Amino acid sequence: MRDTRAELLIQAETLVRGRGYAGFSYADLSEAVGIRKASIHHHFPTKVDLGAALVAAYAARYAAALDTIRTTVADGPGRVAAYGKLYLGGVEQGLGCLCAALAIEGEALPERLRRDIATFFEGHLAWLEAILREGQADGTVRDGAEAAVLARYVIATLEGALLMERLFASPASFEGTLAVLVEGLRPR
Prior knowledge:
Elements: H1 4-19, H2 26-33, H3 37-43, H4 47-72, H5 76-93, H6 98-103, H7 111-138, H8 147-168, H9 171-185
């Protein structure tokens, strides 16, 4: 049996990650999935509803991945490396991070989506801050910078590298940036 809602979310995510929220319409999504626009409205009455569902599904996938990293990778730098590899799929597909693609549109987005995106990034910052603080406590992450500042540095570096390597289509360069980032977290 066809799961139209799931297909819509998959195709809408690809469209947003490739074109941005303002860069696609229900007509584009209708064509990608092969259904009428009215059928899309049945599942997602408004584009804001669709956007919120996209962010929720994306956040759930990331939350599961972050839990796996925390339980399977032993140290702070290794966890950051594993976190960075989550971005690599976007580079390989020529797609940006969903929430970064949405965040770029800033004030043009509906308030509900801005809140959802902020919540997504706040969760990532909290996770990174915790693993970096643990790494500082166990000696695997360098001291000298607050874990909260390092967490923002990690996300800014990875999002910037994703944006650049999406343009240049260079997964190897992204991996190089990730390696330098991770090495810089280790004690000197």
